[in-house]
TrEMBL record, chain A:
The keyword Transcription regulation applies. It holds the Pfam family Sigma70_r4. Residues 21-88, 134-171 form the RNA polymerase sigma-70 region domain. This is RNA polymerase sigma-70 factor, ECF subfamily. GO terms for molecular function: DNA binding; sigma factor activity. GO terms for biological process: DNA-templated transcription initiation. Keywords: DNA-binding, Sigma factor, Transcription, Transcription regulation. It comes from the Bacteria. It comes from Psychroflexus salarius. InterPro entries: RNA_pol_sigma-70-like, RNA_pol_sigma-70_dom, RNA_pol_sigma70_r2, RNA_pol_sigma70_r4, RNA_pol_sigma_r2, RNA_pol_sigma_r3/r4-like, WH-like_DNA-bd_sf. Signal peptide: none annotated. The lineage of its organism: Bacteria, Pseudomonadati, Bacteroidota, Flavobacteriia, Flavobacteriales. Belongs to the sigma-70 factor family. ECF subfamily.
From TrEMBL, chain B:
GO terms for biological process: regulation of translation. Keywords: Coiled coil, Membrane, Transmembrane, Transmembrane helix. Residues 112-153 form a coiled coil. The chain crosses the membrane at residues 87-109. GO terms for cellular component: plasma membrane. GO terms for molecular function: sigma factor antagonist activity. PANTHER family: ANTI-SIGMA-K FACTOR RSKA (PTHR37461). This is Anti-sigma-K factor rskA. It holds the Pfam family RskA_C. Residues 96-253 form the Anti-sigma K factor RskA C-terminal domain. InterPro entries: Anti-sigma-K/W_factor (IPR051474), RskA_C (IPR018764). It comes from Psychroflexus salarius.
Length: 176, 263
């Protein structure tokens, strides 16, 4: 289910494989970056940095230690967070009021996608506010269980089970 | 913990997020290799996460991919527009090829049924030719047997001239095989009998004149060579052929005597 063949070719500096992996992952990586930087122009700059890192550091990915998606996700989150923490970002950003990814799934944000995304949007709407916060911190911001527990003021032991229940709500949107 | 316990624990979700500590991460990695059901669950989680972030993603600027490719120093140009065009070209070629193939199949089908028809016609012709050949062979065999009769040293040929008042142009020949007490009458020189009439062959003793019917030739018209074989002859001094009503007569109608000849 992950394109191991392309990944191996990427690790051998195959530009065509890189271009194909870009096609496979760039859209959702841009989504991840958006939830952190909240500005499309900045998100695209960050994404370019991310994929340059993917190209340069491809050898460090080890299939037996994790998913390629997770590896990409880590690079994307770290790059985006670095950007958010930079001085330049703090001076230019206008979207401080956006708190979670749910903002980007409001009905009026992207009319082009409205028809395709009815399924998952509908299920995001069903999510409790706590679920949105959990997914925001764990998935999009890469918080540890401990950081999440402290940030949301919930018991450490309930973080992973609550998060699973939240994701299961979304998964029914795929199964339908 | 059993595989199912790992699946329901919520650890696999955190594994895909990449937020587990190093030890837990290694543990799940080895479980994925060991248990297919865990790997499937991890892939399902990954799928929904990718779906979610893809939904969030704005449409990237068209030049972003080219810019990324340029940034890694790639000589590859952004293939996206060309890919879609070449795909459509392949699509057109594909459709064209399909149509050609379909046309070819129909053409072959048509050709095949035409050939089948031709084969059937040829077979029918062959049957006809075989039948004609058989017929010719029968005719030749007939001629050969006739020739054998004519050549036979025991067979004597006699002429049966036409009866002047009735049929001056008629004639017949008798090939008498005394040894086997048989006669072959060649009646090709007789006219076609009128409808409702048949030729009747008589064996005659002359003193006193005693006719004995030896054959009623009701198949005269359909006989090919007009040579008639008559066996078990009585004592014969002359042969005569008269025209009689269908079915023949008990005694010859001398007014309709066509040929007569002594042997």
């Amino acid at each position: 289910m992950q394109p191991d063949f392309l990944i191996e070719r990427l690790q051998n500096k195959d530009e065509k494989a890189f271009a194909k992996l870009y096609d496979l992952y760039s859209e959702n990586i841009l989504g991840v970056i958006m939830t952190i930087v909240k500005d499309q122009n900045i998100a695209e700059e960050v994404m370019q940095d991310v994929f340059v890192k993917v190209w340069n550091k491809a050898q460090t990915y080890n299939k037996s230690k994790g998913r390629f998606f997770t590896w990409l996700l880590n690079i994307a989150r770290n790059s985006a967070i670095d950007r958010v923490r930079s001085k330049a970002f703090k001076n230019t950003s206008k979207n401080h009021d956006i708190e979670t990814f749910a903002f980007f799934l409001q009905d009026d944000t992207d009319l082009d996608k409205a028809s395709e995304s009815i399924g998952i949007k509908k299920f995001v709407k069903k999510l409790k506010p706590m679920c949105i916060k959990l997914i925001q911190l764990l998935y999009f911001q890469g918080f540890s269980q401990k950081e999440t527990s402290e940030s949301l003021d919930i018991p450490l032991g309930t973080v992973k089970s609550r998060n699973r229940a939240c994701l299961n709500t979304l998964r029914t949107s795929l199964e339908d | 913990m059993k595989p199912q316990d790992y699946i329901t624990s919520g650890l696999l979700e955190l594994y895909v997020y990449g937020v587990l500590d190093k030890h837990e991460n290694e543990q799940i990695s080895s479980l994925i290799n060991k248990y297919p059901e865990i790997r499937v669950e991890v892939e399902d989680i990954e799928l929904i996460l990718m779906e979610l972030s893809t939904e969030i993603s704005p449409a990237a600027s068209p030049q972003l991919k080219s810019s990324v490719l340029k940034a890694i120093g790639s000589t590859e140009v952004d293939e996206a527009p060309r890919t879609s065009r070449s795909l459509s070209v392949f699509g057109v070629i594909g459709w064209a090829a399909s149509l050609l193939l379909l046309g070819g199949i129909l053409w072959l089908f048509n050709l095949n049924s035409n050939l089948e028809t031709e084969v059937q016609v040829s077979n029918a012709n062959l049957d006809t030719l075989e039948e004609q050949l058989n017929q010719k062979e029968r005719v030749i065999a007939n001629y050969e047997s006739t020739l054998e009769v004519v050549r036979d040293k025991d067979v004597t040929a006699y002429s049966l001239p036409g009866n002047e008042p009735v049929a001056p142009d008629a004639y017949a020949k008798a090939f008498l095989d005394k040894k086997n007490n048989k006669v072959y009458l060649d009646l090709a020189g007789l006219p076609k009998p009128p409808k409702g009439m048949v030729y009747q062959v008589w064996s005659l003793k002359l003193d006193p004149l005693t006719p004995t019917s030896i054959a009623v030739l009701d198949q005269f018209n359909s006989d090919q060579d007009k040579i008639f074989e008559i066996s078990n002859l009585p004592e014969t001094e002359a042969f005569g052929v008269t025209l009689e009503p269908e079915g023949g007569s008990k005694s010859p109608t001398l007014e309709q005597l066509y040929v007569l000849g002594t042997v």
